[in-house]
Specification:
Length: 711
């Protein structure tokens, strides 16, 4: 039975029907209307509202928000991808999701979102996948495990036929989400971020006890990945603030210690769908979905959801939370009158009945419970479920709520076992039989440069240097190899030491044919290096590049960026001295694209963000041919400062017969279409029939078109 009241608003009748179908599939009783005016009542009540907004700046949005009660979740459907517009809509606490539907909406996408909002069970990657698609899981506790996870998921994507450009976006999203989960989410007992004052280079050497859970899946058309932390410190308000700051700030590429904002912004810009599930104090789960059939990646769905069902037993890493009921004690002595006793008795009974009702209601909201049976060979191993110790094997646990758990098994003298299990509600227990393997000798592998893939006997291990190998049989001989793009493969033979001992191997990698290196020294030092416009991490040994030409840029705040074309030669190691000149920057934006000239030299097209200039005055010219644009202004640049110019233009079209305009920059034949700055302008007109000239006073509005159809 459809028991949840859902309001669907769309001016388009066909679109309205698609909305209704998707919402009914989610279990909603749909009331579909064509306009906000059809919704009667001062403050409307519903379990969900979906509004189809036909354009940006739709005035009906404000009217809708004013009519709905403050606790009604809202899904906004907009006509095109626009992260800024999505952020503006999401700022209303009731807006939980913004969907893009350029022509028609996919009912399945809408029903997925609606189900989460109507029933409150939001966590889990499987909620965005078709039935039967397998979800894979991994645990990640440190930087090395992060690298291994990214490599393993990238290999899985390649095996599924995912193209390289999509794999790069997937890798970037996983990297950013895991960095947030491992080093930005953790807090201490007082709720203070654990790594707030720890530099990034120091953070990546640390290992977390409470590991992040990463899940991934692919159905051939979509690739989905999720990362869940065990702290739940992110809020919708903070997330939106971070993303907006990166989107609308000139300094969005800065990454400061303790900041997760850049990661969220990069993820939102590199995925087709971005969803964040919030359970304050317990867990945060970020989900990215990549549409493999799209020509290019654009954000088509952005949502943030709060868990309404008490699933702390499924997601929390600590023990069950205790609930304490407090009451008042009577003061004063002496016997009470019978009427007082009766009143107290009635109050106690009502309190008891009310408490029972609360307990029953909470139990009805909880997911069903299931059991986990763990056996190991040999027995007596200690079992941890979501990092909480539960006992020694053989072990049966009967108090687990349905869901996904991280399981760790430890036994002295044996290798630690880690995995993820799914508990289902019902009488049949989930069985976990684990053969434990004895601890073995350790081989430590390092390379210069670091980051090479590790091979054992010619087979990939999924590890990168520096790496520790602890699963080789003592006394056995193995060929340990390293492989890295741009370098020759290198192999060393090693005999694995006895248990508890280790041996170290060091590889000095040599450049492969067809590759060279470029090192950058800047004056002043500490420059950020970009190669072909892409920011690079620091590289003490230089950047390894294929033979060819590259634009290498060095940037230092307060100085003009230095850029030079470098030709990379096979086997050559080049050193680029980048001497930067003192200056500032100018950001130029306009609502119409135009070529930009500074002091008569072309520098690019609008928008230009952080364009470096020497100190002092400069002349800036914006030009375009269709419509004609010729707009010049002055700018004064100060060292270390960024000046901003946000220009608004409107169109003017001359349609009068044999009449043309002669604005600045136009040739003698004149033009009939032009872009002029917003405001009142004097436009010279020429009547070609009479050769008469006169000025026309024109009021230009940003983004609007003015037509001159009479002489």
């Amino acid at each position: 039975m459809l028991s949840k009241r859902v309001i669907a608003v769309s001016q388009d009748v066909k679109f309205q029907k698609r909305l209704a179908a998707g919402l009914m599939a989610a279990g909603g009783a749909v009331e579909a209307v064509s306009s906000v005016a059809e919704l009667t009542g001062a403050r409307l009540e519903a379990d969900l509202c979906v509004y189809h907004s036909p354009e940006k700046g739709d005035p009906e949005v404000e009217n809708l928000l004013a009519k709905l009660k403050s606790d009604i979740p809202i899904v906004m459907v907009i006509p095109g991808p626009d992260l800024g517009h999505m952020l503006d809509l999401m700022k209303d606490p009731r807006v939980s999701n913004v969907l893009v539907a350029e022509d028609a909406i996919e009912s399945s996408r809408l029903s997925n979102v609606a189900t989460k909002l109507l029933f409150g069970d939001v966590f889990g990657l499987e909620k965005f996948l078709s039935w039967g698609v397998r979800v894979y899981s991994m645990l990640v506790g440190d930087y090395q495990e992060k690298s291994i996870a990214i490599a393993a998921i990238s290999d899985f994507a390649a095996a599924m036929g995912v193209r390289r450009k999509y794999r790069e976006s997937i890798e970037q999203a996983i990297d950013e989400l895991l960095m947030n989960a491992l080093y930005d989410a953790p807090v201490d007992q007082s709720g203070r971020p654990m790594f707030a004052d720890v530099p990034t280079k120091t953070r990546i050497s640390l290992r977390m006890e409470q590991k992040a859970v990463i899940q991934y899946a692919c159905d051939g058309d979509r690739f989905a990945v999720s990362v869940r932390d065990s702290f739940g410190m992110l809020s919708k308000e903070v997330a939106l603030k971070f993303i907006e700051k990166c989107l609308r700030s000139d300094h969005q590429i800065d990454r400061k210690a303790g900041g997760a904002g850049l990661g969220l912004y990069l993820v939102a810009n590199s995925s087709s769908e971005f969803h964040v599930n919030l359970y304050p104090g317990v867990a945060t789960e970020a989900i990215c979905i990549f549409d493999l059939t799209a020509a290019k990646i654009q954000l088509k769905s952005f949502g943030m959801y709060k868990e309404k069902i008490d699933v702390a037993g499924r997601l929390a890493v600590a023990g069950a939370q205790r609930r304490v009921v407090t009451g008042a004690t009577a003061s004063g002595g002496g016997a009470r009158a019978p009427a007082g006793l009766r009143a107290a008795l009635v109050a106690s009974i009502l309190l008891l009945v009310g408490s029972l009702g609360v307990v029953v209601w909470q139990q009805m909201l909880r997911p069903g419970k299931g059991s986990l049976v763990v056996a190991t060979d040999p027995p007596a191993a200690v079992v941890y479920v979501d990092h909480a110790r539960r006992g020694a094997t053989p072990l049966r646990i009967d108090d687990l709520e349905a869901g996904t758990y991280a399981v760790t098994i430890e036994l002295g003298g044996y290798q630690q076992w880690e995995g993820v299990v799914r508990i289902t509600a019902g009488r049949e227990a989930t069985s976990l039989n684990v053969p434990l393997h004895r601890a073995k000798g350790v081989v430590q592998v390092q390379s210069s440069p670091a980051g090479a893939r590790l091979l054992i006997d010619g087979a990939e291990t999924g590890k990168v240097t520096p790496a520790t190998v602890g699963d080789l049989t003592s006394g056995a001989k193995h060929a340990i190899g390293v492989r890295m793009v741009g370098f020759r493969d290198s192999v060393q033979e090693v005999t694995v030491p006895e248990s508890g001992q280790s041996v170290s191997l060091q590889f000095q990698l040599q450049l492969a044919p067809g590759y060279g290196t470029v090192s950058v020294e800047s004056e002043p030092p500490g420059a950020v290096v970009l190669i072909n416009g892409v920011e690079q991490p620091p590289a003490a040994d230089g950047y390894v590049l294929k033979v060819g030409s590259y634009d290498v840029t060095a940037r230092v705040k307060g100085y003009i960026p230095f850029t030079q074309r470098v030709n990379v030669l096979s086997g050559a190691r080049q050193l680029l001295h980048a001497k930067l000149s003192s200056g500032g920057a100018v950001t130029i934006r306009s609502n119409m694209e135009a070529r930009v000239f500074v002091d008569g030299k072309p520098v690019g097209r609008t928008p230009l963000v952080g364009l470096g200039m020497t100190e002092g005055p400069h002349s800036v010219l914006l030009r375009a041919s269709k419509p004609h644009m010729f707009y010049e202004f002055k700018v004064s640049v100060r060292k270390g400062e960024t000046s901003e110019k946000d220009l608004k233009f409107g169109r003017v079209e001359v349609r009068a017969e044999n009449v043309v305009a002669r604005p600045a920059g136009a040739d003698a034949s004149g033009v009939t279409e032009m872009a002029l700055p917003a405001g009142t302008q004097l436009l010279p007109l020429l009547n070609k029939s009479t050769n008469e000239e006169r000025p026309e006073k024109v009021s230009v509005a940003a983004g609007e078109t003015v037509v001159i159809d009479k002489w």
